[in-house]
Amino acid sequence: MQVNGVITYSLWRNNLVAEHDDQKKFINLLRLAYSAELAAAYAYRGHWHSVSDADERAHIRQIENEEWHHRQLVGEMLDKLQTRPSRVRELRAAIVGRALGFLCHFTGWLAPMYGAGRLESRNIREYETAARYARAAGHEEFVDCLLTMAEVEWEHEKYFRSRVLLRSLGRRLSLWPQPPPRETIRKSFAECAQSASLDHECSLSAGGGVEVPLDVVVISQHAE
């Protein structure tokens, strides 16, 4: 009986530690996402101002608005979790985003399209990762919203990929890996939901740092 009690306590303690760790990772990722969306929105504002085609201007402007909406949604999650974004990261994101938007006027048409598409591909995975952390930390109420944002980022990647492939030079470039079909976002999450924790197969790597190529800043896995 005593052995069983020790085992039960040990399992309970391990689960508690794992849930706390998932909660910490979830909050860190949300804080990074909040600031990254600020940089992305400012970058896209400069991007759509830099293109001459009316349809492209309208579409990229819509993407900017969707990034602002994502920032609002992530901010609401942070409020519910009773935490705040980093002031330093917010300032840096604003500076970097505006700088990238300004550079879009000088880097030509293809480079911002390529940079945006490559990073939107990464953003898909990172919102999927956030949804898994949310579930593991016991915040099921955030899961659908996070998966929806991943699906929106999927549409962004699809658009920028299609733009790059319009140009002969773009078709000769080595493109970033193409994401799986959109429907796999929720399908893979549902399959992983059968597991009680973030195991190796279900966890998604969010990368090792904030990348700042030509058009948009992405979420980084590692908090400061």
Structural commentary:
By secondary structure, this protein is mostly helical. The protein has a single domain, classed as Up-down Bundle (Ferritin). 70% of the residues lie in helices and 0% in strands. It contains seven helices and no strands. Mean pLDDT is 84; it is low at 6-17 and 203-224.
Low-confidence stretches: 6-17, 203-224
Number of strands: 0
CATH superfamily: Ferritin, core subunit, four-helix bundle
What's the mean pLDDT score?
84
Judged by helices, strands and strand pairing, the structural class is mainly alpha
Largest sheet entry: none
The CATH architecture assignment turns out to be Up-down Bundle
Large-scale geometry: globular
**Tally of DSSP helical segments:** 7
* Helix content bin: 55-70%
| CA gyration radius, whole angstroms | 19 Å
Q: How much of the sequence is in beta strands?
A: under 5%
Number of domains in the coordinates?
Answer: 1
The helix/strand series, from N terminus to C terminus, equals: HHHHHHH
End-to-end CA span: 45 Å
CATH domain fold name: Ferritin
Per CATH, the class reads: Mainly Alpha
